[in-house]
Amino acid sequence: MxxxxxxxxxxxxxxxxxxxxxxxxxxxxxxxxxxxxxxxGQTTMAKVEGEKIDWYKFSNTEKVLYQGxxxxxxxxxxxxxxxxxEKVLVDQEADDLGLQVSKEELMDLQFGASxxxxxxxxxxxxQAPGQINRQQLTQIKQIIENGQIRQSIEEGQLSPNFVPxxxxxxxxxxKERLQSKMNALVSKAMYMPSWMVEMEYQAQNERVDFxxxxxxxxELDNTEVTLTDADYRAFMEEKEAQYRTxxxxxxxEYVVFNVxxxxxxxxxxxxxxxxxxxxxxxxxxxSNFVDRNYGTISANYLAASDVSPIIADTVFSLxxxxxxxxxxxxxxxxxxxxxxxxxIADSADTRHILISATTPASFQIAASRVDSxxxxxxxxxxxxxxxxxxxxEDPGSSSNGGLYExxxxxxxxxxxxxxxxxxxxxxxxxxxxxxxxxxxxxxLKRSASKTPRAQLAYIQQSIIPTEDTQNELYDEVLQIxxxxxxxxxxxxxxxxxxxxxxxxxxxxxxxxxxxxxxxGGQATRDMIRWAFGASEGEVSPEVFGYxxxxxxxxxxxxxxxxxxxxxxxxxxVDAVKDQIQQQVINRKKGEMIAGKISSKDLSQIASQYSxxxxxxxxxxxxxxxxxxxxxxxxxxxxxxxxxxxxxSEPIVGTSGVYVVKMVRKPVAAQPTNIPQxxxxxQRTERNKVNGRLLIQAMKKNADVTDNRFRFY
Length: 712
Fold this sequence. Notes:
It contains 25 helices and 19 strands. It is an alpha+beta fold. Among the domains are: 31 residues; 122 residues, Chitinase A, domain 3 (Roll); 122 residues, Chitinase A, domain 3, CATH 3.10.50; 82 residues, no CATH class; 100 residues, Chitinase A, domain 3 (Roll). The strands form five sheets. Strands 16-3-18-17 form a four-stranded antiparallel β-sheet, with helices on both faces. A hairpin with a 2-residue loop joins β10 and β11. α11 crosses α22.
């Protein structure tokens, strides 16, 4: 009671404390979350020309489009982000230009005779490459027009996500259509004046021959070259467009610790296979057994040439039911069981009628129709040829009475193949279900020549590091990280171990999702996000684990340190020195070699450097690669500035120093048919617009604030 009395007397203090506590929660939420009580746009993932791209809308769209899809999620998000950004720009530009897509045009782009490229891609017919699945599109159109979407979703005809998916797809179609209209406006407005046509004509048609001597850069050893920061800066300034960046970048140094299986791991996996062999040998249903134990069974009967040479001689000497193993094949322990072996004909003739089916209901209908066809054939009421022509949906054989001659084993799908070469009797009719539908099959004849073949079942286990091995290495790496918190300390550790090396990453942007040889994935993205919150020289406290994409175990641990922070603009020399060092050395070597060349006699220069005089023939100004010479644009450019018999000064090229002599330079003919040439040259330039040139220019000039790094 005394305590309650004190609280009552000092109630003002209690109110203040509660207020402070609430304020603390509000401030914490404002600064750490993605929501803001002041409406500060904490769900705004990006802003394009003043228009916001909301994170929740982006995330929901991703779920609709890519639910259940495997692969790199960051690559998919990049594509989706590009769509959102481009859609804003296209919509705004189209509005300014008065361009639109009407409802009638949108319907035509979805279901008409010439649909959108998006529809062509998503609704292509797998059985007829390059063709659209009109049946599927017509069915969807009817469902939409009849207002049966909900019913069709409930009956399983449409995906539960059909409505949001189709809604987004319409946005894609409209964007693509507006973009193509803008491309047409720009490309149709492009005009090439006569002087430009003449210049392009001469660039393509003027041909010269020149002799040259090449002195490779390795004429000098790297140790003979001394570089200064001025040399690096001069190189970077010459290639400013290549190195200047529009946003801040960072560079990492990282060391990779590869997780490898030990001898103990290998023994454990061998024992696991060995322990399964007795049950494998006595299994009644081999297919079920391998399914339970992550094995495989061959759908077809295999010849010795189809089997690994490690076991081929052995398995074809074993009776059915025998098991061989464990044995090592590549990076796996395996055991193989001979399910069955047969002497199988090398070829056969057959004919069939295919009734296509894709759904359970359609397979049931197809099976019933095949039963009816068999009845007609057995009654003699019709010939196989006439029925195949009338009913078969196999475009490859229906007009030929369903006939296939000289079929080899495993040429057809397994179910058809088994009837044709193993179980079927010649002259009998068989109903065979495959992925394409239901077939009526007749075996006509088999060749006299036969080859031993076997159906094989396997159980296998990859020789990978066990969880204990992965954990042991992780603990070791964690200790290294704990003791070495600076990049200099990490470099010292690596220098003391022959099994480790440091790798310098390329320049990384805040929203990147790949790093050099590490590739992509969650670990890479986490590393980039850490880098943009770290201080220069800092080592990440987190050890980044990478998963083997086939075996799903941690195959490497990576320790990263932040090497450089490069502001937007030209990077510092130190930031790119490692990447450009050899190129700068070659440039310096070129200058040194060029300074030693005083003669204008190509034979004398060739003798001086123990090389030879070569000739480049029939070279045009637009030639990008010349046999023997290679890709040397500076050499070709210099050659076309030269007169007949003129010898150039030394040219520092891509792979060496060149001295060139013009051998043949005929007077360039002037074009007399400029009006006929102009359309062809204009078409080349216009096609660049119809690609990605226009939209990329729009994006480059747009005001875009990219905040993706806050969300993923």
